[in-house]
Amino acid sequence: SSLTALSVRNHLDNDAVLIDARPERSFNTGHVPGSYAIPHGNAMATWVGWVVPWGQPLVLLSADASHHDDIMRQLIRIGFDRVRGFLAGGIDAWTSAGLPVEESQRLDLDGLKQAQDLPAAPMVIDVRQRSEYSAGHILGALNIEDRKSTRLNSSHVVISYAVFCLKKKKTLRILHSLDAHTRATTRKYAV
């Protein structure tokens, strides 16, 4: 079913989580705070199952209403049947209602080097597997393989590091999962 932005806000205030099924670039330029970036595609259900606690009530945001049936089919197949509905009008309806949005910024390696030289250097999170991290990593990086780590707090500026595109998606999911779990307000960058 279609939900107004204020109805979605009410569901989110009552323990539902928002799955943002738009492409990564759209998510990065503006998203609902605390939402999970899980783009629509063949692996969407796998990522929802990995990131979202099972049984959690869901609200969905997609870029295209023609994806709604497929998204619902994927979620029901993995047991996520507590879907409250889709945000009618998408992120534009959310912002038009005066509700807050966040951005996830990208930072190139030169920018990262400059940021690390500042007195309040950011925390670098490396989401690769422990063996990959051990083989070589950015000096001072914190290795977090999954969303269960709670080593962040609201004072951290976070820079995530990943090499491959799939790992970058994992990075964004982990960061937004941490936000949803800790309600921390962090500045996030994907390198």
Describe the protein's architecture and organization.
By secondary structure, this protein is α/β, with parallel strands linked by helices. 38% of the residues lie in helices and 18% in strands. The protein has helices at 5-13, 24-29, 44-51, 68-77, 90-96, 109-116, 130-135, 165-182; strands at 2-3, 17-20, 36-37, 58-61, 83-87, 105-106, 123-126, 142-143, 157-161, 187-190. The strands form two sheets. It has a five-stranded parallel beta sheet with strand order 1-5-4-2-3. The longest helix has 18 residues, at 165-182. The model is unreliable at 161-167 and 180-186 (pLDDT under 50).
- Tally of individual helices: 8
Distance between the ends: 37 Å
Question: In oligomeric terms, what are we looking at?
Answer: single chain
- What spatial form do the alpha-carbon principal axes imply? globular
Secondary structure category: alpha/beta
* Largest beta sheet: strand ordering: 1-5-4-2-3
User: Which regions contain 5 or more consecutive residues with pLDDT less than 50?
Assistant: 161-167, 180-186
